[in-house]
Design a protein that fits this description.
Blueprint (H helix, E strand, L loop, with lengths): L6 H22 L7 H14 L21
Amino acid sequence: MSAVNDPECQLNSLDLLNVFKKNLEMLRDNYLQLTEAEFYLEVPDAFEQTKHRSNPVEPLQVDWVSRDAC
């Protein structure tokens, strides 16, 4: 980079390197940065993978008392 004489080109390349460094740090922390299009393409797959039901441990009774009741 030191061989590049154009200040605008140096600034752009420094910005690119900073973005690249940020992405590498995110990957190291197990994050994957997606573009908006990639995100919307991944949603149906993620939804398909999470098809399970959760059941409450103790179902609420019909006559349960709320916290705000006096």
